[in-house]
Amino acid sequence: MSVTVQPKAASHEASYQPEEALSSQVDTSHFPPVPRISVQAFCLSDHSARTVEAAAEDRRMAKAHTKVHLGGIAAAVEYFSQAPTPNLIIVEVKASNGNVLGELDNLAEYCDAGTKVIVLGDLNDVKLYRELMQAGVSDYLVSPVDIYQLIGSISGLYADPDAEPLGRAIAFFGVKGGCGSSTVAHNTGWSIGRQFQHDVVVADLDLPFGTAGLDFNQDPIQGVFEAISAPDRLDQTLLDRILAKCSEHLSLLAAPATLDKTYDQGEGAYEILVDVMRAAAPSIVLDVPHVWNGWTRNVLMTSDEVVIVAEPDLANLRNAKNVVDVLAQLRPNDRSPRLVINRVNVPKRPEIKPEEFANALGLDLVCQIPFEPQLFGTAANNGQMICEVDAKHAISDTFSDLANTVLGKVNPAKNKRSGLSALMAKLGR
């Protein structure tokens, strides 16, 4: 992706954006990623130009190639009189002048077939909106537009209305080696499948040392390495063939966990795999190893949700602070990472209080998991999840609550009222 600010140099569906729309009312996590398209924006105001630039830096626009110009429709006509049009043109107009349709007709003479147009205007008028839609404009946004409206509009234009909803990718990342991030990821994935009764794919991205196969008591022949080794052949059919079925709703994409080869993945090694998994299941749990390189950074940047796992000591706090600061730069329009503190109350170990740990990072503490070596050791040795070992243990409820949190949902089982509770409600009335 590149963004360049330069000096002045078809029928589609749309949704009307009222003037009072606020960015805080938009849930950006549901915007599907924009594909590899070219975008040219021609703005009249510096505010609009900065908004397009900020939108272009968003992770959902990472694949798009965006350029921003000043000058509005006049500059666009001059530019495209000598150059082919891109996939999408964003143009700002003075709608209050009353000649928007005439100016757009001039621009249409230079537009190639298939080019979409989003118009930014200063007039909040339904009649104008309808006229623009009839003229073939893809969408009309009332200025001043914010980045959430713009990203949502672009994303909506290129999302297939007949396609299944994209799955939600949740990345679990340990800020220090051995802090239990993989265990938290696997148990949370298992809880999502059990509670919400929908398909979950757990992908172990730690190719040389991954433990997902052991934790789920699986020894698949193929897994993540085979998927990323042939990106040109990777599709739904191949993914289904290499997935290991762990339960009715949970499938595993295991790591080879061998050292007979080195694993030197490029920065975009997992992009295609994650896209294919998004179309395969509503929830994707990414077990990201404790390394820092191009592909790790890219996976954390493009995931819908990031959960960082730490232990309550000084080294973990330092590392967590670095991770949080980097993610704030990579994901400026997303919610902050979720914080899970693991192995709390280890005997005779000096610890930072979980609340103080979270406050130092400026994050809300999602949950803290106590030190229970007998419980976790038994689960690991048996290839079971915590809930399978002891469903009544408080830590089982902790993983259930964490599953609810990362999906932004309420546990369906907790909403079901028993016959006795219904009877008591009637008696109360």
Overview of this protein structure:
This protein is an alpha/beta fold. It folds into two domains: 3-19 and 33-158, Rossmann fold (3-Layer(aba) Sandwich); 168-415, P-loop containing nucleotide triphosphate hydrolases (Rossmann fold), CATH 3.40.50.300. It has 18 helices and 14 strands. The protein has helices spanning 46-56, 72-80, 100-108, 126-134, 147-158, 181-196, 212-215, 224-229, 236-242, 271-280, 294-302, 314-330, 354-361, 373-382, 386-389, 394-407, 412-415, 419-428, and strands at residues 3-6, 38-43, 65-70, 88-93, 116-121, 139-142, 168-174, 200-204, 244-245, 250-253, 283-288, 305-310, 338-344, 365-370. Strands 9-10-8-11-7-12-13-14 form an eight-stranded mixed β-sheet, with helices on both faces. A six-stranded parallel β-sheet has the order 1-3-2-4-5-6, sandwiched between helices. β12, α12 and β13 (338-344) form a beta-alpha-beta unit. α2 (72-80) runs parallel beside α3. The N and C termini lie far apart (61 Å).
